[in-house]
């Protein structure tokens, strides 16, 4: 389950990266990408500790 979740998060991140955004929208995307990276790290940690 955890590995599937990580793959889906990567797909979402790539979809966001592929968007052509400028200005405030670009800044918001960067914040979202950072939050998704935080979630990915959390999932990886949870997998490592056997929680997922």
Mean pLDDT: 94
Largest sheet: none
Q: Helicity range of the residues?
A: over 70%
Cα-atom Rg, whole angstroms?
13 Å
Shape: elongated
Low-confidence stretches: none
How many DSSP-defined strands? 0
How many distinct helices? 2
Distance between the termini: 7 Å
Structural class assignment = mainly alpha
The percentage of residues in β strands lies in under 5%
Query: SSE order in H/E notation?
Result: HH
Structure description:
This protein has 52 residues and is mainly alpha-helical. It has two helices and no strands. Helix 1 packs antiparallel against helix 2. The chain is elongated. The mean pLDDT is 94.
Defining traits:
about 50 residues; mainly alpha; 2 helices; about 85% helix
What is the element layout, followed by pairings?
Blueprint: H1 2-18, H2 23-48
Helix pairs in contact: 1-2
Short account of what is shown:
By secondary structure, the chain is mainly alpha-helical. Helices cover 83% and strands 0% of the residues.
């Amino acid at each position: 389950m955890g590995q599937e979740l990580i793959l889906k998060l990567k797909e979402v991140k790539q979809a966001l990266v592929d968007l052509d955004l400028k200005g405030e929208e670009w800044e918001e995307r960067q914040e979202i990408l950072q939050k998704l990276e935080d979630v990915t790290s959390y999932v990886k940690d949870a997998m490592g500790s056997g929680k997922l």
